[in-house]
Amino acid sequence: MLPKRLVLDSWISTGSPADFVTAILALGAARSSAYVCCANVHMVVEAHQYPDFRRILDEAAIVTPDGSPVAAAVGWFHNQPQARIAGMDLLPMLLEEAARRGQSVYFYGTTDEVLAAMVARARRELPNLKIAGTHSPPFRPLTPEEDAAEVAAINAADPDLLFVALGCPRQERWMAAHQGQIRSCMLGVGQAFPVYAGLEPRLPAWARRLWLEWAYRLYLEPKRLWKRYLHTNTKFLLLLGRRTAAYLVRRPTAPLASR
Hints:
By secondary structure, the chain is α/β, with parallel strands linked by helices. It is 54% helix and 15% strand. The N and C termini lie close together (10 Å).
């Protein structure tokens, strides 16, 4: 697997975009019941605050540096430049390579409208892509019987890659709970579904390079996101400042951990 570097309390995988695609498709080809998390600032702060969620990230096969600040922190603390590996970019890259290799995919989450638009785009642009299935679960906790039926349906479809979009941290908890039950590589990609479907626009590349994607999301959903961004972004900067100060003090003799 890809080497990981510590950012605050989270182990973040490192490598080039091609490295991530290759490693994830290898997990899928092996039918490994593993999961991949795409870590933005919100997720890293959640892991700092809640030990049970930190364990979920620790047990992920791969944790991509989804947020630009997270990728930048890898470079700051480990003197290792790291590109952002966002779920919104990873999804189309994986679909393209899966189509080329003949690997199958399954889309789980969001709504029937989003899933239909995703399938339409994939079939239009990647006619060789094997889409094993799609499912939009209800927006409520499932009964044990419903959950067992959904797991059985996914395993019957037998996808290499299972893309999961239930929102953070629900999708990460769902993947961790189903590790060992679902015979696929599971990827929590959240907001990548409506973006890939063409139902939600994305900022141009120049704006993403300026770390403005969070501001755009806040503009789209101010009532839902303003508290999250006010709290998590501020908390992340404060924690990062403290770790940076401690790192500078001990830097000559104690480099940060890696694995």
